[in-house]
Specification:
Radius of gyration of chain B: 14 Å
Number of helices of chain B: 0
Helix content of chain B: under 10%
Structural class of chain B: mainly beta
Distance between the termini of chain B: 41 Å
Order of helices and strands of chain B: EEEEEEEEEEEE
Oligomer: heterodimer
Number of helices of chain A: 0
Order of helices and strands of chain A: EEEEEEEEEEE
Strand content of chain B: over 45%
Largest interface: A-B, 27 and 30 residues
Helix content of chain A: under 10%
Largest sheet of chain A: 7 strands, mixed
Chain lengths: 116, 116
């Protein structure tokens, strides 16, 4: 089944404790992206990746890191989480992420992160 | 940069009522337009998209949207809503003519509640 998976689905942590949220897709998509969803703000892009070893900042990259060593995986790293990073996080992938692309983005199930 | 406006943040309707959710974007060139739906506790999934051809696009579950280029709009419609349509609806745009990566820009979402 074609899908985007994320782990963990729920995470409660404390300020400053490094964490990683994994994201994996099995559709051989080139483009992957991370979003955070906050009430009243919709989805905001954190980082994206056009292909292996190619990553770039989205609209709200502060406090996050990503890597793309393999095509299927795109982990999101919070080196020193803070309470303002409490949010719902979605990973997404699509065939291409070029500006003007009509490709559909496929979303993972989401990771609800709480930073105390 | 592209931007998307969804004018109605919360909409409450009774079952069988007709629905129209507004979406306007700001970009003067070629655009690809999407509506995504997020049912309670679930991830985003594609309802429909426009990238060329007939400006009236039909999607899943009886939804349709009309692209009106002169109005920079892509409003979502459904003639008769059901309780199961209760969800958050996001309009998104991917604009440009290739080169670079903007990915999707999302509106802030419209929370639709259908009362039985």
């Amino acid at each position: 089944e074609a899908q985007v998976t994320q782990n963990p689905r729920y995470l409660i942590t404390v300020t400053g404790k490094k964490l990683t949220v994994t994201c994996s897709q099995n559709m051989n998509h080139e483009y992957m992206s991370w979003y955070r969803q906050d009430p009243g703000l919709g989805l905001r892009q954190i980082y994206y990746s056009m292909n292996v070893e190619v990553t770039d900042k989205g609209d709200v990259p502060e406090g996050y890191k990503v890597s793309r060593k393999e095509k299927r995986n795109f982990p999101l790293i919070l080196e020193s989480p803070s309470p303002n990073q409490t949010s719902l996080y979605f990973c997404a992938s699509s065939l291409s992420g070029l500006a003007g692309s009509p490709d559909t983005q496929y979303f993972g199930p989401g990771t609800r992160l709480t930073v105390l | 940069a592209q931007s998307v406006s969804q004018h109605n943040h919360h909409v409450i309707l009774s079952e069988a009522a007709s629905l129209e959710l507004g979406c306007n974007y700001s970009y003067g060139g070629t655009v690809n337009l999407f509506w995504y739906v997020q049912y309670p506790g679930q991830h985003l999934q594609l309802l429909l998209k426009y990238f060329s051809g007939d400006p009236l696009v039909k999607g899943i579950k009886g939804f349709e949207a009309e692209f009106i280029k002169s109005k920079f709009s892509f409003n979502l419609r459904k003639p008769s809503v059901q309780w199961s349509d209760t969800a958050e609806y996001f309009c998104a745009v991917n604009a440009g003519s290739g080169g670079g990566a903007d990915g999707l820009t999302f509106g802030k979402g419209t929370h639709l509640i259908i009362q039985p």
